[in-house]
Design brief:
single chain, 185 residues, alpha/beta, three-stranded parallel β-sheet, 4 helices
Length: 185
């Protein structure tokens, strides 16, 4: 995207000198004429951060979103029905509830500006894990919940502002989120 001249807003829940250096190096490698890379601290578990991010993009940066890749997640390895806890609730809020709230905030921002002919394409991070692994807290429930958004886009008539695409992300060895399932992957 950067090499093509795009303006990219990247978010991180671990805003630090190391993280800003990583993004600075990314821009130095891939940035081109007209491109911008804006790094914003963001906690997708916080409704305040969701609202503040969309406010920042639309009102401060005066940008409109074309593509959104909301892939925030936290691991819930080792949690079954008998030990769901506040971390499980946080993970569900990050992976489903606040993602839906973010789409609502984008829809509201676009509607208030009458941007109806350029819906933001949101790539939903779906999963083939519909409970098959087990011991992963509310992860599969969150991912199944995202699948409902594919139908809601039409039934709730917000498709003029936000369109959704489901990407089944699969099991990838070597990622922190999937580390306990590397053998199965």
């Amino acid at each position: 995207l950067l090499s093509g001249g795009a303006r990219v807003v990247a978010t991180t829940s671990s805003y630090s000198p190391a993280k800003t250096k990583m993004y600075r190096d990314l821009y130095r490698t891939w940035g081109s004429a007209g491109s911008k890379l804006i790094l914003a601290p963001f906690n997708q578990g916080s409704l305040g951060d969701v609202d503040a991010l969309i406010e920042y993009i639309y009102n401060v940066l005066d940008m409109d979103l074309d593509v959104v890749l909301p892939f925030a997640a936290i691991s819930e390895n080792g949690r079954d029905l008998s030990n769901l806890d506040s971390r499980s609730e946080l993970a569900h809020r990050i992976m489903l509830t606040n993602l839906e709230r973010m789409l609502g905030a984008i829809k509201t921002a676009k509607a208030s500006r009458r941007i109806e002919t350029r819906p933001a394409c949101v790539v939903l991070p779906l999963s083939p894990n519909h409970g098959a692994f087990g011991n992963d807290g509310l992860y599969s429930e969150s991912k199944i919940g995202l699948e409902a958004l594919l139908a809601k886009c039409v039934s709730e008539e917000w498709g003029h502002f936000v369109s959704v695409v489901g990407a089944i992300i699969g099991w990838t060895r070597g990622t922190g989120l999937m580390s306990s399932t590397n053998l199965m992957a």
